[in-house]
Amino acid sequence: MRKFYYGENRCCVFEYDIKNMEERTDKIVYFVLGKFITGVESELARNFTEAATSQMEQLYQLIWKKFHGITEVETALLTAVEERSTSDFNRAVEYLQKAMNEDPQFANDIRVLVQQISASIIQDASALKQIDSYNFRSEINKGIKYELDVSTDDIIYGSQVGDRTVVAYTRYVRQRQDFVKIPVFFATDRKQKDKTSPKKLYGGKRNQTGDLEFGLATVSIPHDHRMGNLERPKLWTFERSEDPTRHVMLLDVKTFGQDKFLTDLRESLKKLKKSDAPDLLVFIHGYNTSFKDAVRRTAQITYDLKFPGQAILYSWPSEANFLHYTTDENNIEWTIPHLEKFLLLLLTATNARAVNAIAHSMGNRALARAINNLDRSQLPQEAAILRHIVFAAPDIDADTFRDFAKEFHKKAERFTLYASSQDKALRASKVFHGGYPRAGDSGQKLVIVDGIDSIDASQVNTDLLGHSYFSDNRSILSDIFYLLKHSLPPDKRAGLLSRTLNNLRFWLFQP
């Protein structure tokens, strides 16, 4: 094992097996990896030749391409980018070294690029010194300038970054009008984790009391946002740190009690009443989702759907870890009574005209059970109605869902189910559950029940796993828009073809 020590305190930055890497190779590779993670593109452009900068970008893209699709590696790299975490940087280093040991061609491709970089800077003593003395921890400190609160009107200089002007922040000020702020009310039974940062406020553990916490989050949507995108810093370009003018970014989180939550929500709906649209849209996220990403996704969906009412997130304690599927399964069962109480609260105490809900993936288990347990006869006459319920890629046993669905028609005006045979995540869930179909499966296993509009989305373009198609694809977002905005049935919505399966009618997206 080889350890690297830098700085006056001789702090160990990372360690790795050196046997297959030459001295200069390892230094350049880890310098490039660290620079791209911390997003110091201006230094690269200033301190290196154009050729060297381009070659370094190619090197990083080569590394990213190798790891793209390997969840645990992507998670380490993304966390290193967002949190500038030394431990996650170390993990990325370990994966990189392992890949080079196991894939000679990959290792050779890296060495070829490193040789080109070396040739570009061999006569540049200052550049060589910068690489040889590279300190990832110092880059983390420099990165503080990207963490400033962009909602304040003050321009801050210096601070913890020494005599360096906060260039990134002044860019935010100049382009302040290049993004819009989307308010997202929320309720959660997650346990608070870190009160110092809105991004880390809630973790993946349960609030053991079972009591809901309420609040209001603010999310930026850039004006050049593309429908269906959840813009974030990209690992394959020099764009490394969050910027509200370019990314869907969690800006702020305020927490308060139930009374203030209801008061503020009523006030928001009162303002919207002028446009005759005092409706609510509740989003229940799926498995492997952090609070931060759930809020961002809620804002993106609301913005893309041009929803005229108020968006609300219900966030249950997903651990946001690809490997913790069973933990999330336990937590989604635990949250069901809390979601039931929350839906009753929205129906009876907000002055809303109607409540709509969209659940994704495992979140459908909680929503389906909560609706199944709802007894509208016990609600006051002035209670809001449940209007549209959307089950998107539901990761719930298909037979269980069919049993629930028999009574759904008594609970809400319209139910819509989106399913896809391209959903690799649901395929894995099916295997995990002994081969029993999921409600989000399509093909011959498509769930078709009276009172539910079943839509086969297999022919639309999807993400890598094909599991977030409801929020990533323009066609499906447009379909949900016409459903929520105009309450149009499937035969009145563009792009849907009527088909039958076992003499039962369903709908198919046109290719």
TrEMBL record:
It comes from the Bacteria. InterPro entries: AB_hydrolase_fold, DUF900_hydrolase. It holds the Pfam family DUF900. SUPFAM superfamilies: alpha/beta-Hydrolases. PANTHER family: ABC TRANSMEMBRANE TYPE-1 DOMAIN-CONTAINING PROTEIN (PTHR36513), TRANSMEMBRANE PROTEIN (PTHR36513:SF1). This is Esterase/lipase superfamily enzyme.
